[in-house]
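I'll show a record.
***
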Amino acid sequence: MASELQIRAFLPADAAAVRDLFIQVNRLLAPAHLAEAFEGYIARSLAEEIDRLSDYYASRNGGFWVAVDGDIVGMFGLEAVGDRTMELRRMYVAPGARRRGIARKMLAFAEEECRRRNRLELQLSTSELQQDALALYRSAGYENVREEIADAASNKTLGGGIRRYHFTKRL
């Protein structure tokens, strides 16, 4: 039950479950015509970030957390952007645990962590493929500050002509 949900800092023992969740969610997001591009994005993200979470986020004055309800059912990271802002990254909920308020609880936790660090703005981006995420961020008071068609791939975006939405919220 979501009432037993615990959000805690990522531990090395969580690495395999986080890796599996990242791969599962991204494969589910992939439209058939972009399946190959998603596999490239997954491989790049694993190498550059997911398989080295502690080092990656520490080097960016951030952190990574997991949501646990028996198993790991969610995850997210925060990385510093300048002196006063954090960027929300990799917020995913396991498909079998969705529609239980887990993403909203992780988002509230992330916002509180930003306040604790005296970073009073949270930025994030998501794509047109993630309609539930778009609805969540809009309902949680995030302002859509920019949209783009992402052509170039990186560990932060697939590219492939997907529309990306960039949001921000003053905390």
Q: What stands out?
A: The chain has one domain: 2-122. Residues 77 and 89 are 5 Å apart (CA to CA). The chain is about 35% helix and 30% strand. The helical segments are 15-29, 35-48, 53-58, 102-116, 131-139.
